[in-house]
Structure formats: structure tokens, C-alpha cells
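Hi V.,

You were right to ask for the full record rather than a summary. Here it is.
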Amino acid sequence: MSQRVYQAGENYKYPLIIKKILNTPLVYSPDKEIVYRDRVRLTYKTLYERINRLASGLEKLGVKQGNTVCVFDYDSNRYLEAYFAVPMMGAVLHTMNWRLSPETILYTMNHAEDDIVLVHADFLPLLESVWSKLTTVKKVILLKDDDKTPATKIPIALEYEEMLKNAQPAYDFPDLEENTRATIFYTTGTTGLPKGVYFSHRQLVLHTIGVSIASLYESGIGSLRSKDVYMPLTPMFHVHAWGVPYVATLLGTKQVYPGRYEPEAILKLIQREKVTFSHCVPAILLMVISHPMAKSVDLSHWQLDIGGSALPRGLAQAAMKLGIRVWAAYGMSETCPAVTFALLKETMEGLDAEKKLDYLIKTGVPFPLAEVEIVDNNDDFLPHDGKTNGELVIRTPWLTEAYYKEPERTKELWRKGWLHSGDVASIDEEGYVLITDRIKDVIKTGGEWISSLMLENLISQHEAVSEAAVIGVSNEKWGERPLALVVLKPQFKNKITGDDIKAFMNKFVDQGKLNSYAIPDRVEIVETIAKTSVGKINKVALKKQYAG
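Predicted structure:
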């Protein structure tokens, strides 16, 4: 508790700050578990003490309000502790995407002006590769999962557990001004330098409340309750693991952290800990359900929020065959990230399974406290008729105010009081958003626009298709033509050709779902499809690879 003394008659100005999130689970569910793989089991009571010890230990190392603490780690209880301790003491948490190139990591660390680094032993070589060029880092704390001390050229100030053991079990977390910056991380754009986005305590608390309210809707999917068992499959460095660790903590939900993403380990955790709620990008879902063990594990209690990129219908159907409940959601690094989710309204309960799936794979309706519109090139609003396409623009109280130290790029992001997403979308009469493409990925052929996401969704419904990506390639006559890249399921390799896929797509032309000019001229059967560091299809890399 803050030690400030209030005068008689002076009311308490309740700040929306992260430390307030911890009040509820410590009262409602202090003995619920926090699990890290097969290595650590805590309760909310012991988690809270460790959060206090972490803040106390960091303060001993010289961390003050306004300093930046960078974390390189897998999804773990340590990361959850840093989610709270660092911003609660008034410092800024920099969640490092360790999948970035060394050059990009160096840029982001210097740009964010990191003071202290918490680094897992596995990432010491990566940090070593940029160590001599870091300009602001003062001390390094080692995180490890065993008793081994790795050899390194980096001077290690302390080992994490040793620091907590020798730190004070109580810390006087201040009542910060709620607009104090709490977190920073960097976008994973594939062109240009990454952009820093940052969020305040107030924004993170409001995001937590908004997502918590959304989880109360009784639609058969999307609900997260205190009785659930939560396990993130979105890296904790990526947009606060979509903010759900804060939500799960507020609700006092049992939390399971999987560490390194390995499909067999994930499936064992789902089975052993009875995990009921996760979230991930489509590539992670595909990785898990493609593992042979998936067929022998009961997944009927598991529900999955899919974001980061569009949820292909074929992938959704494959998951549902295993009993998994899946639905799509949408957000961006710049939006903290929740904007829309594929809630099924009560009026849709009578729809058949295929019609429900039409809505579940859509981008969805806005979260509570979120507003969305579509605009034309002049930023004028367009009708919600489900047909008209425009750029999706957004308002919520948790959008990043600016790109860190980037005023010119901020002007591109914010116009006329709306955050511009760069995504092409339609909004129907029911308020459902459907992202049809990124503006930069729309295929322009002979004056007509073709949605690469729509083509990927249709291709994914072929029984032999594991993954699909569609890009536009230069064409002398038409300007651009679609090229489809397809990864086949193992049992169909060398049995299905590109012509088979094109013949399958012609069925959608016959059904009136697709124009004939949208069928790709070429369908390439490939072994893998390039991904970004957060598992999205890397269309910039694909366009470079297949430009000819």
C-alpha cells in the first residue's frame, strides 16, 4: 500500500494502475496455481511475494521510476512476475522479441534505452552478439531453468532466483499517475526499421476490463472464467500475450506457462493441467493439431482464440473435428491489441454449424469500449452493408498514442482522431467486421481487386491442404496476377498438383462465390511458407522470392 498520508476530508483519487489488478485474485483465489511446464508451481500468494521480491531486487540494482527493463524469456512464471513488478515500481517493461535479427534487437534496445536486461540462458549468445554496441544497458540478470551456469562474456550481475531469495518479501509499490508509461515493444514489420509502441497503466487496466467484460457474453465460445485453466500460446513478448495474462490474473484463473513451444509438451500440458483456454496464431494451431499425439489427447475442453492473421476455414474445420472450439479475433501491436472478436450473438443460436462457422472465422464485432469504422481515401465513412470495402479505422481507450520517438510515422497512424489500421475491411448490418486484406497485399488485376485472404480461405478447404498463401506477382497484361503457394498434408504429398487445386477453386466459381479472374494463374506446391517472427505469413519475403 502507498504510504501517502491523506488529510481529513480528502478523498482517494483511485488510479487505474496495474497493481490494482492483483487485489482481486489475492482475495478471491489466493491458492489457485501458476504453473511453469513441469518445473514450477506457485499460488497467487507466492506469486505476489515473488513480484514484491523482484521489485525489491531490481531497486537494489539501481532501477528507478522511468528506467527500462528488457526481458528475453520464454513464456514463464518469471515473465508474469515481470509483467507486474516492473511497471508497478514505475519502470517500463520492454518485452523483447528474441526471434528478431541481432541487428534489429540492437536497434530496439538502444532505441528504447534499456537499463537492465533479464535474459534466459538460451539467449545469452544472441545478447553477446550485440553486447559491445549496446549504449545504455548497465546490468544483466540471468534466467535459467536448471543448475548449470553457462559460460558467457557478458558480466552477469545476479541470477534471477538468487536475486529473489536475497530480496525483501515486501515492497511499497507507489500509487503512480495512471498515465505513466508501463510497457514498450516493437512492431514486427517486414519493411523499414521496427516501430516502438508503448502503453500506460490506464490503457492496460482498461484493456483488461474490456476483455474481461467481453468474456462474460454467453455465446458458447470466447468465455474466460475464474474456473478455467489458461495457457498462452502467443509469446509473452508479443503485445502482452494479447493482454490475456492480465485478464487471467484479474479473474484469479489457474495459469499454465509452456516455455518453449513444442507441440508434444503443449499437448501434455493441456492433458495434465486440463487447460481450457488458449490463444495463438494459425501457424501454432496447425503445429499442435498436426502432431500425431493430437489424435490421442482429449481436446474437447479446449477453446482457442485465433488472431495475428486470418483463421482459414479449413484449419478451423480441422480443429473442430478434434473437438476444439475456435474463433477469430483481431488486433494490432498498436491496439494493445484487442479490437474485435467473433462473438456469436444470441439470435444466432439456431443457425446450423456451417453458418455459425461463417461468423466464427470473421474478424468479428468490436470489444466493449472499442469503436470501428471503414473509410475511403478521403477518410469519409463508408456504409455498413457487408459489401463496401474501405480502410478499417479504430478508437478505443487503449490505443498507442504514438510511435516512440517517431512523430512523422505517428502522423501516418493517426488521422482525424482515428487510428488507421492499414487493413481493408467491410462491416455488415450486424456490425461484424471482415478483414479482406492488408492494403499493401490486395492484388490489383486488370482494374479489379482480389482479396488474397479470401483465396487463402477457399484453398484451405481442400482436404489435402495444410497451409496456403496467395500473393500478387507482376503481370505485363493485367498489372498483377495471384500466385498461390500451397503446403500439402504429409499423406497427400506427390498425389496432388497445382492443377488439382485450381480445379477445386473452379467449384467456387460455379457456386457464384468467386469470380473466374480471381483463380490464380499458378499454384506452386511448396514444402514451407515463409513466416515472420511472430508466426504470420511473410508476404514481403514471398513477393521477393517469387517476383520473377
